[in-house]
């Protein structure tokens, strides 16, 4: 598995498994376990997905079957909007690690910026306290745009290591991507497959023919070529295997450019400037 390196020296696998909209039952447990047994080392969880318990069991069973240790994995979870505010962060964090059955997270994210800047800043100060106390390995944000990141920069002291945002060939976030590159904050893509919608795109399928891979593998590889961390979700065993099988080929600059040109600034999720839970 290919890793990216944060400005603080820590690393993160460039590909992981997403678990949004997965039932808190054997579906979650089996998907996570299957992923770990098949080489995934990163899982993207969140309190609000309501499935941390079964994701946690999948982690335990996956580690046992793959013969690996906790430190071989990179586990992310996210603080939901109803627990914002400096003093609430530790409670949100504790709930997630208890749900997951873990002692620590590798990455804890503020799930959305929210619409109250003062509250967002106060919440980030809680994230900083968690990090400074050594309870979490890395802290980051999700769904932050440039203005949100500038507000953090101007009013807080620890820079996020990563920003997890909507990113797929119809929503390529070029200005945010450039901003993150210049500030040494990594970008992570959610809904990289546009919730499967992108898989019928003609250009993607033409490139898939050219390289002898599936449409999903082409889109995931396009993330890798851009240096973006990605977390495609699947609960289907053969797709979980397919989605990690992207490190034995590459796309040419021309193929990357053809995919970049598909951009329509088309979101499938909420606009972070308006979303408050
Ligand atoms: N921070 C945030 O606000 C935020 C928001 C949204 C998502 N996320 C994270 O990002 C992860 C990924 O996003 P997402 O779940 O919205 O969507 P996604 O990964 O873009 O797409 C998932 C969909 O694609 C299907 N799929 C997966 N691999 C496939 C393949 N190889 N061939 C055909 N279909 C395939 C899945 O079906 P099956 O499962 O049925 O196989 C599922 O329906 C989430 O799970 C979550 O961890 C974060």
UniProtKB/TrEMBL annotation:
- The question of whether NADP is a record keyword is answered with yes
Every NADP-dependent oxidoreductase domain range: 15-263
Keyword presence, Oxidoreductase? yes
What keywords are annotated for this sequence in UniProt? Answer: NADP, Oxidoreductase
> Which InterPro entries does the record match to this protein?
AKR, Aldo/ket_reductase_CS, NAD(P)_OxRdtase_dom_sf, NADP_OxRdtase_dom
One short Pfam name that applies is Aldo_ket_red
Q: Which family does it belong to?
A: Belongs to the aldo/keto reductase family.
PANTHER family named in the record: 2,5-DIKETO-D-GLUCONIC ACID REDUCTASE, NADP-DEPENDENT OXIDOREDUCTASE DOMAIN-CONTAINING PROTEIN
What is the protein's name according to its record? Aldo/keto reductase
């Amino acid at each position: 598995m290919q890793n990216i390196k944060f400005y603080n020296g820590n690393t993160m696998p460039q590909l992981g498994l997403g678990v949004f909209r997965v039932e808190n039952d054997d579906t979650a447990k089996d998907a996570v376990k299957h992923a770990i047994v098949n080489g995934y080392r990163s899982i993207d969880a969140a309190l609000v997905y309501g499935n941390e318990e079964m994701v946690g069991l999948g982690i335990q069973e996956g580690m046992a079957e793959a013969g690996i240790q906790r430190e071989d994995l990179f586990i992310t979870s996210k603080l939901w909007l109803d627990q914002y505010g400096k003093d609430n962060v530790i409670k949100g964090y504790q709930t997630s690690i208890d749900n997951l059955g873990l002692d620590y997270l590798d990455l804890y994210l503020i799930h959305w910026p929210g619409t109250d800047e003062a509250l967002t800043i106060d919440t980030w100060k809680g994230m900083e306290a968690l990090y400074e106390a050594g309870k979490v390995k890395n802290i980051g944000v999700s769904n932050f745009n440039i203005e949100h990141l500038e507000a953090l920069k101007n009013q807080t002291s620890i820079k996020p290591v990563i920003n997890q945002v909507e990113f797929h060939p119809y929503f390529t976030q070029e200005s945010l991507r450039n901003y993150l590159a210049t500030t040494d904050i990594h970008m992570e893509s959610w809904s990289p497959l546009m919730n499967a919608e992108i898989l019928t795109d003609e250009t993607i399928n033409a490139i898939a023919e050219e390289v002898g891979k599936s449409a999903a593998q082409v889109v995931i590889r396009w993330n890798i070529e851009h240096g973006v961390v990605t977390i495609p979700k699947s609960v289907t065993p053969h797709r979980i295997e397919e989605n990690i099988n992207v490190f034995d080929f590459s796309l040419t600059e021309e193929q990357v450019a053809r995919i970049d040109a598909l951009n329509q600034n088309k979101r499938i999720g909420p606009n972070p400037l308006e979303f408050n839970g």
